[in-house]
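Per-record layout

source: Gellertiella hungarica
name: Bifunctional uridylyltransferase/uridylyl-removing enzyme
length: 949
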Amino acid sequence: MSAALNDIRSTDPERLIDGEALRKALSLIASTQAESAAGMRTAVLQLLKKVKAEGLAEARARLDADRLGIVCARRISRMMDDMIAALHDFAVNHVFGAANAAADARIAVMAVGGYGRGTLAPGSDIDLLFLLPQKPAAWNAPVIEYILLLLWDLGFKVGHATRTVEQCLVSAKGDMTIRTALLEARLVSGSEPLAESLANRFDWEVVLNTGAEFVAAKLEERDERHRKSGDTRYLVEPNVKEGKGGLRDLHTLFWISKYYYRVKEPGDLVKLGVLSRHEWQLFQKAEDFLWAVRCFLHFLTGKAEERLSFDVQRDIAQSLGYQSRPGLSDVERFMKHYFLVAKDVGDLTRIFCAALEDQQAKEAPGITGMFRRFSNRKRKIAGTLDFVVDRGRIALAHPDVFKRDPVNIIRFFHMADINKLEFHPDALKRVTRSLSLINQDLRENEEANRLFLSIVTSKRDPALILRRMNEAGVLGRFIPDFGKIVSMMQFNMYHHYTVDEHLIRSLDVLAEIDQGRAGEVHPLAATVMPGIADREALYVAVLLHDIAKGRQEDHSIAGAKVARKLCPRLGLSPRQTDLVAWLIEEHLLMSMVAQTRDLNDRKTITDFAERVQSLERLKLLLILTVCDIRAVGPGVWNGWKGQLLRTLYYETELLLSGGFSEVSRKERAEQAEHALADALSEWSQKDRRHYSRLHYQPYLLSVPLEDQVRHAQFIRQADKAGQALATMVRTHSFHAITEITVLSPDHPRLLAVITGACAAAGANIADAEIFTTTDGRALDTIHINRAFEKDEDELRRAGTIGKMIEDVLSGKKRLPEVIATRTKGKKKSRAFVIPPGVTISNSLSNKFTVIEIECLDRTGLLSEITGALADLSLDIASARITTFGEKVIDTFYVTDLVGQKITNENRSSAIIQRLKAVMSEGETEKDAGGARVPESPRQEIQKKARSEA
């Protein structure tokens, strides 16, 4: 067998195996195993398995060496041709003894679909058509069955059809998918006359005079495919085959070329003037790159995986030879190249397919005679002689419009905006071919910048126009700093789009708020927006807030520098320029404070107010923050984040307007206690006194009266039922948050147990409010992200989580075991590396030490962190739990057990080391959620400290 394999290996750089040598090896098996059909089949299968394995290994080795994707795809296709042809000959000649059968009784084995194009990825399906003669012979069907069974045993996914020529033509006329597959049919083995008959009759009986029908079907199919993939080519985990800007878009171009223009290769379109030579070169480069990515993807995953997930992006980047550079890692440079290629594919398919769509557009129904002729006429656009309207699309009045006046490139998009016109494909093609006219003179042109600013701040659909400018390459040329972030991805799970797409989507959200269409989702932003004094500054800041991503310097600071240079060019005043620069430099401030700081701590509000300084800045920063978060990706924004932003806004607004109360905390707490007692007016005097005095200052000053009453009723009900442990749940559909309140005997590891139980139940924690009652109990409220749309479903889920918490606290279940069950079988992601970070600050709060941790997320992490803080004898007063994709930033407001800040440097260092060890090693505490809840000394120490005070 080894000697046979050596003979079968091909020395041809374009082929992986020698087809003729394989035929001889199979003939040798037939001669030595003739007496046993089963033995012969087994020997054939073993040989072909080794041929396949060694052929693919050789394909991988050559791809590693030359990185030529299209060549790799052709090599694998040719290997498949050689194997199928040899197998067909073997079956006909040696298995079924039909070597001398009449010519008109022979079948044709044909490759169709992607295989018909002569390109295959390692895991591609093998699409075959077994073409039968008009009068099939008795041995035809057994031969086909023999071939298929062996191919399946070899592990190939085979899509197959068995038809006569006549059946193929009938099916093709009624099914566009079959018609497309036959368009690419080619003979692999068997009867040439039969294959030629199909090709000729298909051309004359199916293709002829049906070009418009085929084009319309393919364009509709393309649009539907794009809709399913999110209708954007800028997803950070793109589908290489089916996604927008992927291989299927190139296939669509190939199919239409072959069908409509009757060409054999897309390169023939250059001769016809449909594509320029440069565009044809782009086609070739894009095809080769995408095939290289797809082949590496299949080789790395060992299957027909088409989604370029985070787990494989770095491996493919390294396989393709990308190196890290300052500001961009190797994987980010690879993905930027990927999206630039996807953009090129989009340019090619848009220019080509849109032109065909325009040519084949059906005239509006119901218009006849003179009215039809009139409807097809071009009409002038008021205020310009350079552009006209052609069937609802802006077109060029003369071919040299851009060359004669380059400002017309910007004016073209401006006119489309103010007249609400679609774009004529010929005009877009000329825009793309005129990019060299966008030079420094045009960038400094006052009129061009005035028009551009008008587009950015348009009250119609600025995002749509800017996206068209970006796709045509104009935006990146006119604003070179924007060009640097075009197609740039950020290698994390938080951002769903490339940076340029994120910025344009941010502007789209702003326009939605500005036009009054976001009142239900963003009530505060919608209320604030009409009072904004400077729309221009806000729109420019939103468009530019991430323009400096990918640089060594912090992108907020670098972005502010870019704004200071760019804004005067766009016509903004010095005051507006300062405002835009400030907004960009601080664009993450409000989000981070709202999500990672205790908004009930006055120091949080005063520090934030000092940074903001004015109500106008506060309003602008709020809207910019909303736009930024909303544009990150689906599901990132929720009502809870909106509520946090609103709370921060209102508290800061009070401070900036001088509305904060000067009454002491002690007096305000006493007033709150009396208010709670008054709210319990239907209770007995004894119960009112008891339950209103259960709480300390932090609870009385931070929890709304409505929730205090609800908690009092909850505690009273538990006391009457004799329950030491109890949970209560409530849903907030607008906030997309579910609240679980836990009443329990207090102990140091309580929060660790609660958070661990939530993790075991699959709940994502957004926030935690931690309070201790005067009788030594804990009243903790955990906010988890909502999972179900309907309240009854969410309440059922929350009840299950509450029961899990009770079971763990009571010792019925052990926390390490339930977490282990939750994580069992889950594959750990190796794609992201986030070095654990711990910061300890005593300046962020007047009363608490603030500990912030940053690391890679995992199930049970929060439980381990809170458990470690308990081991370190730290009392957690409140926690902010924030997840950005794969990264967590959790903030804990802590004191020691006597209520003091952590000021000793040695102790701070010990805390940092312990927390980093937990984050790095994923240690699970032995006692976390054990069979028995330990008694805590904390209550006695706290009571003693309070009595002494």
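summary: The longest helix spans residues 330-360. The CA atoms of residues 662 and 668 lie 10 Å apart.
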